[in-house]
Amino acid sequence: MKPTTHTIEHEQPRAVLVSLVTQEQKRQEAYEAEHSLAELVSLSETAGVQVLATMSQNKETVDSKWFIGKGKAEELKQLIEERGANTAVFDQELSGAQVRNLEEFLDVKIIDRTQLILDIFAQRAKTKEGIIQVELAQLSYLLPRLSGQGRNLSRLGGGIGTRGPGETKLETDRRHIRNRITELKHQLQEVVKHRTLHRERRKKTGVFQVALVGYTNAGKSTLLRQLTNADVYVENQLFATLDPTSRNFELPSGKQIVLTDTVGFIQSLPHDLVAAFRATLEEANEADLILHVVDGASDMMATQMRVVGQVLEELGAHKTEQITLFNKVDLCSAEQVDMLTTGGECMRISAYNETDLERLSERIEAKLMGECKTFRVPAEKGDVISLLYRVGEVLENEVEGGDMLIQVRVNNKEYDKLGYLLAHYAMDQRENEGENTEHV
Known about the structure:
By secondary structure, this protein is of the alpha/beta class. It is built from 17 helices and 14 strands.
């Protein structure tokens, strides 16, 4: 007789989502309660949670014991029983004591926004660096909350909120976690050192680095794939890709640059994640140019742009030259398209439109390589001629009388460094404008 095989399947999380809006949050212009709750629904679905219902509460301040008030907790318990939920997901971060109190009262697993995001990251991490960073963020989050994780720690087999290192929490205590955090930080330092060496090599070879940044699901990975034919995972979901992907990209002139897709940002990004993923996000900090990809079809576009700006400022990358790309114009209404800025360093594009991609390639080249300028330099001025070859890409040179006419593509940043010297020799190359040539 064939032996009977018993398969243990984890029960799918069925959740009620809870949001608390305090007076302090209402005073913060950047906080959008409805958007945050809608985003929590998307996050939950991305993590594999079946969302049964949502509940929100307006309250003066947070309840130190129940987070929401006791009356609201009783209302939540009734809703959980009616819907047959086994999980409650909160849109804000909870303390260990609040988790413990709510678990005992509601008799379901309690997850907060940070833990949910960490869980998604644990599912998405594929490279050694990504796995280290996720585990470091999870343990940093867990350490001050050990006293409130009773029920979670007692449930073997993991599930939402306990993937990755969460499955070994039963065997850990504060000392073990601190030791593990120290070990992970050491491993991460080695990764940072390795990445820094790569950057230095790139700088020595003169290869330009361009970083794609933006709110999660803005279309960064799609843009990378369309520009470089990269075999990157593209899906209409939050944090579809986590680990940074770098690919070579050829500009219209034939020059090769490196294009890197970074992890997407999100409102209320956990501080532990910003700290742990600093090594990855350094790609944005070290880039010669940042392409800020914006979901132009999103109703929350302004808020999302503000969140990205805040994270870039925290990383120290806000001073790097940027081009803002209003993506997904193919999904916008005519009114939405008209509202998107096109002046300055902004472009309206669709990642699936070949003409838009060509325009973007030309804009990137102009930003990195600079404009074509022509210099008339006396042949005996070898130092100036040598300088032009060093700072720019010489496209053409010819002798005219006793002078050298040198056409150079020079980066604006490098051109500014030369200051008065090159300004004295330069004339813009403009067809049919007959500008006078300056003589030395």
